Structures are given as C-alpha cells and as structure tokens.
C-alpha cells in the first residue's frame, strides 16, 4: 500500500490537513489512520451509567474522528494570544490571519455566527480594572462557542465531506512505529485493533497529529528514531466549580475570562483555562488508566454551575527534565487517594487544613456536577509549589469575581496537561527527519481547537 500522504490521528489538526488539501484541489492520495471510531459512532456510556466506566481499549471522549474536539466544549479562541506557542514560530500576524481563515471554514460547516466577548466594552474595562487590582492580566480573546452537541454535528459534516472527496480513513487502527531510512521517513506500521492484523503503509509524506494522548507514544518515537525534540512545560492544576450567580457578570460579558498571573512567592505562570458557564465537570481517562478532570458545556443543556481550570505551569532542567513523567506521578497520587476517581475538596477545607467529607458537600449552595467525584484531600497529593500557586491565584481572582474564594468553592483534581514534549520543527512543520511532519497538541506547539485546526490548514496548503 502506498499513499502520497499518510496522517496519523483524525483530531482537528489531522482532519484540517486533509480538508485543506481537498479545498486546494490537491489530487494526492491521502490516508488517515485513527485509533478510535467515526464521530457518529462515538459514545460515552456515562450518559446512562452516570459514572465513568473507564472504557477499553480507549476513552471515547478523547479518541476517534475529531479527537478531543468531539466532546469538547467547542470554544474556538479567536485570538493568537490563546491556544499555544505556534505564533512564536510563525509570527503573530500570520497566526491571526490563519485564525480568521480557519474560523471561516468552521462557519461554512455550520458554526454559530455569534462571537462572545466583542460587546460590552464598558463592562470589560471594569473587569480589567479589577484584574489589575488583583495583579492579574486579562487577555482579550473573542470566543466562538460551538457547544458540545453542535461541535459533533460540525465534525460529522467534515467527516462526510472528506470521505466523499476520496480521503481514506482506517478507523480502529493504531499507529505503532515508523520506518526511517537515511533520515527519511518511508512508512508507518500500524495495527488493526479489532483483528490484531499488523500492517505497513508507505508514503511520500507522513504527518503525526496524535494529540495530547499520543504525546507519550511520540516521545518514544523521538527517542528511538532520534527525532529532535526538547522537554517543554507541564501544567498542574485543578478544575474549580462555583454557582453561576458568582460568575454571572464575567460569564455574560466575556463568556470565557482568560486571566494570567505570576503570583507570589514563586512567580510561576498561573492561568485560567476552559471556562464553562452552566457547564459540567467531566472525567477523561488516559489509556494507562489515569483519570483526569476536564469540563465542558452544552449549547442548550445547562447546569447551575460554572467551571474553569486553574493551571500552574512548570519547567524543569538538570538533573530532571521529564515533565510528562512528573505530571503523571502527580495524577497517580491524586487518583490513588480518590480510589481511581476524581477527587473533590472545598476551598475552605483546604484553608482549614482538613479533608472534605461527602456529607459536607451537600451543605453547600454549589452541588458537584461531577457526581462520582470522591470527597477527599487534594493537598495530600498535589505538591506544595503548584498547590500554593493555585490557592494564591484563587485569592487574587476574588478581586475580579467576588465570591470566587468562598469556603464552598469546589476544587477537583487532577487537571494535568501533558503537552509537554516539544518537537523541533521548521517553518513547514517538518521534523529533523525528512518528510516527517508533526502537528497539533502532540507537537507541543498547540493546546486548543483553533490552533490545532489552523496548524492543519497550513500543513494542508504546504502538502497540496
Ligand atoms: C473535555 C475536553 C474539552 C476541551 N474543550 C476545549 C475547548 O472548548 N476549546 C479548545 O480550544 N480546546 C478544548 N479542548 C482541547 C482540544 O480538544 C485539543 O486541543 C484539540 O482537540 C487538539 O487537536 P489535535 O488534533 O492536536 O489532537 P486530538 O484532538 O487529541 O486528536 C488526536 C487524534 O489522534 C488519535 N491518535 C492518537 N494516537 C494515535 C495512534 N498511535 N494511532 C492512531 N491514532 C492515534 C486519537 O485517537 C485522536 O483522535 C478540550 C479537550 C477536552 C478533552
């Protein structure tokens, strides 16, 4: 089997590569290898069971056509300042131009015309004033909110479109290794996960777009095949949940507040991420059984709560520089205390030096939207430095959102982002191995739907 282009991973980065090649009238023969199912066959059983059943061989929330995008909140960040470090590589102006271009593609496939965060300039000024008083920076970022259910519809249309235009997709197939000769990539070895058949496809160009969950696999390829990379950042954090009433002003004015602080005493970067007004806290499982927390919101179905992540960024140098391993160990510890489930603790209990008990959760105004989270003690598992950063950031945020640092505010953990291995790429996203490209979250250069998608668009134009 030989193809012009083989793409590993049908997340936004991979599918926008194929989509843009079609839009540019490329006649190249394209194959996508995807571990999971078509988007219309993806189903998280938690809808019925109410608890995570840790699906095998993979979690449907993150795996399958449209990757982690399918069950995401579908918030497209329309500013180059949000979503990763790609602008450092390609320049701010080019990044912004491609965001606008990629946004139009989402609109063509049915995204909502409305953009949050463009109106109410007076109210935004007020929020910024309070952010300054709290020592935080408010990043301007208009948001196009697809919503989880709408995101699935849009990605389904894209799936059908690229299939109709002759792109082949091998679902339930897991890429395992690359064949490289004289520093040039030749082929991908993969396994059909249903039949266990082992196969090899050769290609002129091979694109790895395996997402955050593929980051570990990609790191092993880098080590084995000497692909240039460097250790990046790991984000250790928690998902915070409060009543909608507390966040009402920020939700109405901005929908999502992107706040950054370098809080004392460490002055590490701490930021808010993925805010979900009326949303639900969710669990995702990595293939190695790690349970990590996340959050999303539907366009129609709403809860009484707003959740958002608070993430503390950490870099390492000698003698230890394995941020992915560090993040995993922290998550494992939190999972151990939660007996494999997500832990939840009240902010007030943390300040009072005690764990939270189940019965105490029911006394609060805020009811946990992740019903199978286990009440416990995050401070016994999250290291002192990130925990101090998170607590001091919450205190600072209280000046922007009064009531945010209330004793009943819920903290869920672990929320850890494993996009830490950064692949060294040239301006065409080519790695140090010829004709081997790397995109999206697995490359370490993006951390969001829009940036991953536009990296795919740029790749598609180059390969057309
Ligand atoms: C619950 C949740 C909510 C989110 N909400 C938002 C949001 O609102 N806004 C936002 O901007 N971002 C959000 N994100 C992040 C966003 O989804 C990701 O940044 C984005 O999907 C990254 O795209 P990608 O193509 O790089 O990787 P992914 O979307 O992760 O796709 C990678 C694909 O590669 C496949 N794969 C991996 N390894 C292999 C292999 N060896 N062989 C074959 N296939 C493989 C995977 O199955 C997957 O389908 C959210 C993420 C989650 C989990």
Structure commentary:
The chain folds into 2 domains: 2-111 and 147-230 and 421-463, FAD/NAD(P)-binding domain (3-Layer(bba) Sandwich); 121-141 and 234-417, no CATH class. Helix content is 32%, strand content 26%. It is built from 14 helices and 21 strands. The strands form 5 sheets. The protein has an 8-stranded mixed beta sheet. Strands 1, 2, 6, 7, 8, 9 and 21 form a 7-stranded mixed beta sheet that branches. Strands 3-5 form a two-stranded antiparallel ribbon. The mean pLDDT is 93.
**Which superfamily, in CATH terms, is the homologous superfamily of the largest domain?**
FAD/NAD(P)-binding domain
DSSP E strands, number: 21
Cofactors and ligands: flavin-adenine dinucleotide
Q: At the first level of CATH, what is the class of the largest domain?
A: Alpha Beta
Q: Which percent range describes the beta-strand content? A: 25-35%
Give a quick account of the main beta sheet: strands, pairing sense, barrel closure: 8 strands, mixed
Instruction: Name the strands of the widest sheet in spatial order.
Output: 4-12-13-16-11-19-17-18
The CATH architecture designation of the largest domain is 3-Layer(bba) Sandwich
């Amino acid at each position: 089997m030989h193809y012009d282009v083989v793409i590993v991973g049908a997340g936004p980065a991979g599918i926008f590569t194929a989509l843009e090649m079609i839009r540019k009238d490329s006649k190249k023969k394209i194959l996508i290898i995807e571990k999971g199912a078509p988007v219309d066959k993806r189903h998280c059983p938690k809808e019925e069971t109410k608890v995570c059943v840790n699906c095998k061989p993979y979690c449907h929330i993150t795996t399958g056509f449209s990757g982690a995008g399918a069950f995401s909140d579908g918030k497209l960040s329309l500013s180059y300042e949000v979503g990763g470090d790609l602008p450092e590589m390609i320049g701010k102006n080019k990044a912004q131009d491609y965001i606008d271009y990629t946004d139009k593609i989402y609109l063509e496939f049915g995204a909502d015309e409305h953009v949050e965060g463009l109106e109410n300039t007076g109210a935004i000024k007020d929020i910024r004033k309070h952010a300054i008083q709290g020592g935080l920076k408010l990043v301007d970022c208009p948001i196009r909110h697809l919503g989880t259910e709408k995101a699935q519809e849009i990605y389904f249309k894209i799936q059908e479109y690229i299939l109709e235009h002759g792109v082949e997709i091998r679902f339930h197939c897991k890429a395992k290794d690359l064949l490289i000769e004289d520093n040039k990539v030749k082929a991908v070895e993969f396994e059909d996960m249903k039949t266990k058949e082992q196969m090899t496809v050769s290609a002129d160009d091979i694109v790895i777009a395996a997402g955050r969950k593929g980051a570990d696999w990609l790191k092993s390829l880098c080590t084995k095949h000497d692909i240039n990379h460097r250790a990046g950042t790991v984000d250790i954090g928690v998902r915070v949940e409060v009543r909608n009433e507390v966040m009402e002003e920020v939700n109405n004015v901005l929908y999502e507040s992107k706040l950054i602080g370098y809080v004392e005493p460490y002055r590490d970067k701490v930021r808010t991420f993925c805010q979900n007004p009326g949303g639900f806290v969710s669990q995702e499982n990595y293939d190695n059984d790690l349970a990590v927390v996340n959050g999303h919101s539907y366009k129609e179905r709403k809860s009484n709560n707003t959740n958002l992540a608070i993430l503390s960024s950490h870099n390492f140098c000698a003698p230890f520089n394995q941020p992915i391993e560090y993040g995993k160990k922290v998550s494992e510890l939190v999972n151990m205390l939660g007996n494999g489930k997500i832990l939840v603790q009240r902010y007030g209990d943390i300040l009072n030096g005690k764990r939270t008990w189940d019965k105490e959760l029911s006394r609060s105004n805020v009811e946990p939207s992740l019903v199978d989270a286990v009440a416990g003690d995050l401070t016994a598992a999250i290291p002192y430095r990130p925990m101090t950063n998170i607590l001091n950031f919450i205190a600072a945020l209280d000046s922007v959102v009064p009531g945010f640092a209330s004793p009943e505010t819920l903290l869920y953990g672990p929320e850890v982002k494993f996009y830490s291995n950064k692949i060294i790429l040239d301006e065409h996203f080519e790695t140090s191995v010829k004709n081997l490209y790397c995109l999206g979250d697995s490359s370490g250069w993006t951390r969001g739907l829009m940036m991953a998608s536009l990296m795919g668009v740029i790749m598609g134009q180059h390969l057309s």
